[in-house]
């Protein structure tokens, strides 16, 4: 009886964690878009707020013994922190200049680019099945972009830069975790601090500090509240991701991610009245099929590798 109660409580906690991640992940996209559309808050400044709040949040977490910080040499994290700044800034610029559907689909190109980087520079090989899934993913993104009735060249440039820098960041995160023997939260703690300092130094060269449109400009209370809320939610997104993976598995998180993908696309067309053509709809379905196929084949390969290790004498 006690074990049954424990199982039920565990399942309730997992369901609550998944629900929280669903809400904050979708909320951060729509909230940032709302801030750009209705307040015109500067992009780098919003990213700086996210980094500062994340750093403060992680500092609080380590004080509460949720994780133990590890001393790291700043020089070993320099390029990682730069790529962290780049991918957040460029993806936010993509969100600012594109429809939510285009922004979300462009992010799907991260998988093919990561595979290309690992193949060309890290000599990693991928099966034919995995390579095949890149075709529908890429085709779907191209279809959606080509038939986008609100096509924005600058937005597509930012989306492409965001994909490249995000892919580099994700590859380097894995390499640095292995090299420095740290977990994700330990690495993110130092990244957030270093990235905040970097944006604080270069931000004034690209965006005004005072006056209209500056981070210290005359913003309304509602604008400041939304920006602070966006920073808190960005921190909650990161924290909930680590909690879900730690308490379930990467499989659960990946499959749950597809559900968020669909809801975010749908919400963009409902909340911001973004038009959707039939060809764009086909592009979305094509990309979603490729993502699902990639996840299925990747997880099957991982399961096969585990089985071989278990069967070894």
Features:
11 helices; mainly alpha; 313 residues
Sequence stretches where pLDDT stays below 50 over 5 or more residues? none
Q: What percent of residues adopt helix (DSSP H or I)?
A: over 70%
Q: In one word, what is the shape?
A: globular
Mean pLDDT across all amino acids = 80
SSE blueprint:
Layout: H1 2-38, H2 43-63, H3 78-97, H4 100-107, H5 110-121, H6 128-146, H7 153-180, H8 184-206, H9 221-247, H10 250-271, H11 278-311
Helix pairs in contact: 1-9, 1-10, 2-8, 2-9, 3-7, 3-8, 4-6, 4-10, 5-7, 6-11, 9-10, 10-11
Quick summary:
With 313 residues, this protein is mainly alpha-helical. It contains 11 helices and no strands. It has one domain.
Q: Would you kindly provide a written description of the structure presented here, covering whatever features stand out?
A:
The protein is mainly α and 313 residues long. Helix content is 80%, strand content 0%. The protein contains 11 helices and no strands. The chain has helices at 2-38, 43-63, 78-97, 100-107, 110-121, 128-146, 153-180, 184-206, 221-247, 250-271, 278-311. α4 runs antiparallel to α6 and α9 runs antiparallel to α10 (250-271).
